Amino acid sequence: MRFAALALSLVLALPLVAQTGFSTHTYAAPVVQHLIPVDVNGDGFPDLVTYGGPVDVYLNDGHGGMLPRKYIGVFAAYAAVAQFAGDALPEIATCHINSGNTASTISIYINHGSGNFSLAGSAPLDGICTSLSVGDVDGDGKLDVVTTSYAHDASSNITGTAITTFFSNGLGSLNRSVTQANPDVSAQNDPTNIFDCHLSSATGGDYEQAGRLDLVLIGACQSGATNAGTIFYGTSDKAGHYSLKEIKEDERGFDYFPPYTADVNGDGTRDVVLIDYQSGPHNSWSNSLDFLENHLNGQWTLKQVFTESSYAASYLSAVFSGAGADFINGGSWEAVAGFTQSPDCCTQDTPGIAILTQDTSGNYVESQRWTAKAYPYATVAADFNKDGKPDIATVQVNSSANTASLVLYLNSGAPACPAPSSPGVHLCSPVAGNTYTSPVNVRATGKAASGSVVRLELWVDGKKYGNFSGSTMNANALLGSGSHRIVVVEDDSTGGHLNSTPAYITVN
């Protein structure tokens, strides 16, 4: 994690205001940096597990709220939740960095229900843990643990890195380990300008839907006056070794916060959430939430979602965290980003949460933002109250006071559809190429070329479906099965009209 010493800023794209469509619920929390939404007690409601500090369990109260935290008895830099013991309840695997900062301990905590856990077994790890992933590595039906780590000398110079696989016995104990030393994450295309790369972090998942735990590995590099980074895909041989293939190299790092695996676009595959950064001369800075989208067969697309940048600034502007979900139930997933931002070089920064929708080209467009209590180091999405709409959970940390809060934003409706930047119509939903179930939610906002917007017209398959007064539309259209062409027309007070880009969709 790279943000502690930076002081940066950016002019706001939208004002920080109270959020629409979400209600806020705040709970006491220790200072932690990461959240895992997972059903711990088997009641069907997502609970929360924290790490990057004390490992705590917050049980869902069955209405989307959280009961007081339960500390399981360990501080962990990294953690994962999975069913190691083979019963119906998941266990927690942790990586604790030992005192002296030269070695780590990998542990598994057995779930006894009601948020109670006890230590089942531990194993030593040489070096400092930099990630922890869980999956069935060798195909024996038992979940294993894979870590990345580094070793350093007395001057804190890195002397080696490793991928270590801990094989489990299916009862919560780790039997044996296999180490792959110094995996090569060097830049493959431009090693002259991107150099001195070493393994910095990783995340794991069954990315190919092949019943195999593979890895996405992050390399930290140098590039002249700036930092740089690489991203590699590691294919498992099911024996504890990984063959590496480069996905991306760039003059920016990808380890500002550790990556994690999640579906970010609703296609059912496992993607990766990254926080990148680039620092350069004169205190220049750029920092983004990225989605590494998985297209299977080793094909990936890296998409920048939300960015902060600055030059010669005195206060912090940075993106800390993010997630993807279909917040507006429109069929196309949105993004949420946790950030802080200063409006100029010399004004105190303000932390916030931003919601971003996708336009017809698949680019993310900010639709709203609101002020957070403190820096949102962790941001995840899950349907905490089981009402069919994804909610947001964040850990917000006041680094100066060393205090934190767990803040939930329960989704009570769709956020506004932003107006287009130029005259016309921004059709937020439905999204072209997607498949929907009737009724189909149609949301759009118009901007007049002259005068003001009088109404928006909804046209389906060349026929007018209805008129909607004003510059915004939020309607549900009853459509039959098959293919449909959706167009929204803006009528202004001078008699002019402009059309949206058509959205061709399918209805089940």
Automatic annotation (TrEMBL):
InterPro entries: FG-GAP, Ig-like_fold, Integrin_alpha_N
Keyword line: Signal
Top-level division of the source organism's lineage: Bacteria
Leader sequence segment: 1-18
Protein name, UniProt field: Integrin-like protein
